[in-house]
Each structure stands twice: as C-alpha cells, then as structure tokens.
Amino acid sequence: MKSRNYFLFITVLLVCVLVLNTSCKEINKASVNIPKTDSVIEQYDIDRLEPSQWWVGFKSKNLQLLVKHPRISEASPSINYQGVSIQKVHKADSPNYLFIDLEISDETKAGQFNIYFKFKEGKELIQTYTLKERLLNAEDYKGFDSSDAIYLITPDRFSNGNSENDIIEGLLEQDLDRKQDYKRHGGDIEGITNHLDYIESMGFTQLWSSPLLTNNMSDGSYHGYAITDYYEVDPRFGTLETYIDMSKQAKAKGIGVIMDQVANHCGVSHWWMQDLPFKDWVNQQERFLNKEHLNNSNHRRTINQDTYASRIDKKNMTEGWFVPSMPDLNQRNPFLAKYIIQNSIWWIETLQLRGIRQDTYPYPDKDFMANWAGTIMNEYPNFSIVGEEWTNNPLLIAYWQDGHKNKDGYNGNLPSTMDFAMQEHIRDALNQKESFGEGLIRMYEGLANDFAYANPDMIMAFTDNHDMSRVFTQLNGDVTNTKIALSYLLMLPRIPQIYYGTEILMNDFEKPGDHGLIRTDFAGGWKGDSVNAFTGEGLSNDQKDMQSYLKTILNFRKHNKTIHQGKTIHFIPSEGTYFLFRIFEGEVVVHIINKNEEPITIDLKRYAEIGLKGKTLKNVVTGESFIWNDDITLKEKGSVIFTSKL
C-alpha cells in the first residue's frame, strides 16, 4: 500500500512538472515573442513613426522617435537589436503619442530590426526600423562660401518637367492656373533637373529652391512655406526619389543643393494640428483649440538684441503667429525642439546637402536656434547654414553670426546671415542722384560696415529674392543700372545669390511688390512657351545681352581666387565714379562704377597705392586690353571689370 501510494505520488508529481513546464513556455512565448534580429520580417503596423529611418556613425548617439498611433501611450515598446537600447519612454498629453529615446552605440551595425509595442490586453504592434550606413563622412559635407554663386528658384514657377503630377487627388488645393499669380503653375523637381545644364553653364555653383515639402493647404500653397509634413516631398513637386536624383545630378555637375527649411512655423493643415501631442506644442495653443482670436507676431525682430525690451514685446514677437495660416511652433518644448533638429539632419543625410537656408531666423526661440545651428555644425564641421534676418541694420545681421562678440554673451553658431542691408544700399545708390550723402556713397558706406561682421565674406548678398520686387523693377527698368548692381554684387567679399529670371530682366512692373507676380514663370519652362530663355528663342535683345553679360561675369568669377579670397580695397566715390579692387597672389581685379551719362576722364594717380602703373589689364566682359597709366576715359555710364591676369 505504501509503495503503491508512493508510485502514485511520483506519477502525479511528474505530470504536474510537465504541465507546469509547458505552461511556462507558453507564457514566456506569449510575453516575449521577439524573434532574433537575423530573421526580421518587415511589418509596419504603426500609423506614423518619425524619423522613419536613421543612420549609424553619428557623434551623437541619441535618437528620439515620435510614434503616432491610436492609444499608443498604453503600449510598452521593446527592441532586440545589438547596439540599440531604449533609454526612456515619454508619454505625451495626447494618448496617441509616444516619444522613445534610443541610444545607438558606436558598435551598432546598419540593418533592420523590429520595434514591438505590447498592450496590456495582449495586443502587439510591430514596426520595422532601418539603420543605414552613411554615404559620406561628416567632414565631406562641404558647405558654400565666397567662391560660390547661388541660384535661387521658386520651383512651381521655374519649369514643369512632369505634367502628370500637376494636380494630385486627395490634396486640398486642386486648382492649376498659370494665369493666376497665386495658383499653382505646375513647376516641379523634374523641371529643375532637366535644366541643370543651363544652371551650370550660367556659372552657378549652388542651387537653393524654396521648400519642396508637402504644403497641403486649401489655397496659395505654391510657395512651400506652409509645410504640412516635414518628412514628405510634395507630390506636386515629385517624390523623394526625384529629389534625391536631382541632388545627385546636380552634384555631378559641380552644383551643391541648399535646402530651404522652416523651424518657426508650419501650415495650419499640418497633420499634427488635428491631434497635438502636448498642450504647448504650438504657441497660443489653447486659443487655437478654442477658436479664439490669435495674435500675430509684432515682427519687431530687434527684441532679440534690445537690452531694454519688455517681456510683453518679446512674447508677442516670438509667440505670435507669422500669419493666421501658419501656426507658430513652440521650440521651448524639448520634444518639438528635438524633432526639428533631427529633421534637419535627416534631410542633410538623405540629400547630401551642401547647406540649409533657414527661413524667418529671428522669430523662433533664439536659444533653440543657437542649439539647432550648433548641433548641426558639430555633426558637420564644414557644412553651411544661412539665416534670414530681414533688416537694413548691420548690427542685427552681425548678432546672429558665429564668432560675433555679443554684449549679452549670445553665440548663434550660425555661419552665415543674409545681407538685406547691402541690398538696400545697392538699390539706393543707383536710384539716387549723386551728392555728398547720397548715390554711390551708399554702396561705399554699406561695404565699410563690414567691421561689424565676424566673417563678412560668409555673408550672403543679393540684389533681390522671392520676397521683394525684382531688381529690374527696383531700378525702374534701367538695364545699365541693373548690370551695375549685378557686377558689383559679384565682385564683393560675399556669397552672392541671384534670383531666377534676373538674367532675362524679369520684372513686376504691373503690380510692384506682389509676391505672386514676383514669382512668375520662367520663359521656356512649359511646353508651348513662345519665349524660351533656356535656348534664347524669342528673347529681346536686352534680355539676350543681360543673360550673356551675367554668364560671362559668373564664369569668370567661378574660377577666380582673387574674388574668392582676395583683399578688398575701395576708394570713396568721386566724380560720379566708385573704384573697388580685389587683390590676391599677384592678380588685381578692378571694378569701376561710372554713373556719368557723358564721357569723363578720371585721374588714376589717386589709385597709385594699388601698384597698377604701366600694367596691361584685360576687360573681363569685352576682352579688350587697357594700359593703366595716368588716366582713364569712361565713355558711357556703366561698370567695367578689369583683371591684371592676362
């Protein structure tokens, strides 16, 4: 009896152990359910995860993922991939977001892995994530400098390379009408790619286009500055692949690509405006949600430098919306700040950019902007960023540039700013009559202000752009003055930028300053155009002459180290003339502006310190020779460029 009971006890015990062991395996299998990384099956259950992919090999080992999915805050994420670890998981105010902090070690290999989102009720979502190898070393992302010349394009108005993407079903704006200044006209990325040969032949080395990301707005979306998806190319412009292809083809022709980015605001139709992650994702968020009146920015950008500025003025500047259709982003929210910085890096790597132009630079939180620029320049030490500071005050322009010694201790980490002050000086100098305080002295004094800049040769100068009247309009249709303005621009110790169509005297005389007209179609960019600036067909004599003139100077400048690096000496304007010299390694480049309508002879002994006496110079535009002796007779109004290098 005892032995029988013992046998039964042992049998029951073995059965229990077997059942328990089997049950434990099933529990472990159900709770873990993580396959080895070498057998990843691609699965994309999450509505939105950004950035959608990343790279190994950055100085910073941290990556923050934005995860957007219904009730995702109730899930617990996990990853099983060597070198990648979850450091922290953040819940947002909305239950439909998670922010996941990852650490990517130096040893991490490129590849795919799954991110698992396990809900308490047992439901599991899987999102496959990719880490890629970087195509270039960080040091090889070389930016732009004073050796470059930048061509600025409004893509919708440059050339229509693919008419099939003119109207995209499902987007809010469905109109296409070239006769309407504020409708879409159909220009796209393929249109730019198709004419890279033209851009290269003109002598440009950098291409800056207005933003190409999705602007899913109800109207007026052609300009690109109301972004509704920071990771998506607007399908009316093309695809990510066509954007990458354009960048590759440009690079093959020696042209760098500069991306226009917007950290200050987004479009009101941005996907997150329907479900904002945090209560402070955008400024005046409660007012927006309650459909109350929103304050626009006071646009008084001086508050960034003003030591006497009131708190309310500062608040109204940085927290006011740029316009009612563009929500003002709150960069003081650390998750949004991280999102913007990572987005910039994502595009740098994806497109192998040469630079970024940052829109409305003084409007966001200025400490964030210093961190944004500093983070990028730390990762890419040879990269370039230019910020838009629209002011005629050099002190405000200088404040943002890296290395400038500001009284408040602020260092913006920004390599370059935009020279709106010089633009105004050039315009006024050529429109005004000569007097002691007006005329060419405005150009001279504008350049004399360079003492304010830490690196004046890294400032971007221009005669016009997409936000102001065409230079030909500003100069009242005077072809000669337009040539003077452009030749002076291209001789300065600056990075010059020229707006598309300047070379064919595009204008906005009909409605001066109207943005839709300023950004008009480039002749020949559409099939059936009667005038074609790419081939010269149908251009007037003045247009052909201007195109040839600009092309000659740009291509001379392209290979001229004296203009890129040379010492600058200029002389106070006299007798309606202004002499500027660039000097480097034995070469002298001379730029002479003459505003006199009648022939005038100028005594050259005043310029003896340059050391040109008896030397033969060549006219860059005409090819004619001139011996620099005691005087020079300037037969007509205009500008002359000489080089001592024959």
Automatic annotation (TrEMBL):
<dbReference type="Pfam" id="PF09087">
    <property type="entry name" value="Cyc-maltodext_N"/>
</dbReference>
<dbReference type="InterPro" id="IPR006047">
    <property type="entry name" value="GH13_cat_dom"/>
</dbReference>
<dbReference type="InterPro" id="IPR013780">
    <property type="entry name" value="Glyco_hydro_b"/>
</dbReference>
<keyword id="KW-0326">Glycosidase</keyword>
<dbReference type="InterPro" id="IPR019492">
    <property type="entry name" value="Cyclo-malto-dextrinase_C"/>
</dbReference>
<dbReference type="Pfam" id="PF10438">
    <property type="entry name" value="Cyc-maltodext_C"/>
</dbReference>
<dbReference type="InterPro" id="IPR015171">
    <property type="entry name" value="Cyc-maltodext_N"/>
</dbReference>
<dbReference type="InterPro" id="IPR014756">
    <property type="entry name" value="Ig_E-set"/>
</dbReference>
<protein>
    <submittedName>
        <fullName>Glycoside hydrolase family 13 protein</fullName>
    </submittedName>
</protein>
<dbReference type="Pfam" id="PF00128">
    <property type="entry name" value="Alpha-amylase"/>
</dbReference>
<feature type="domain" description="Glycosyl hydrolase family 13 catalytic">
    <location>
        <begin position="152"/>
        <end position="557"/>
    </location>
</feature>
<dbReference type="GO" id="GO:0016787">
    <property type="term" value="F:hydrolase activity"/>
</dbReference>
<dbReference type="InterPro" id="IPR017853">
    <property type="entry name" value="GH"/>
</dbReference>
<keyword id="KW-0378">Hydrolase</keyword>
<dbReference type="InterPro" id="IPR013783">
    <property type="entry name" value="Ig-like_fold"/>
</dbReference>
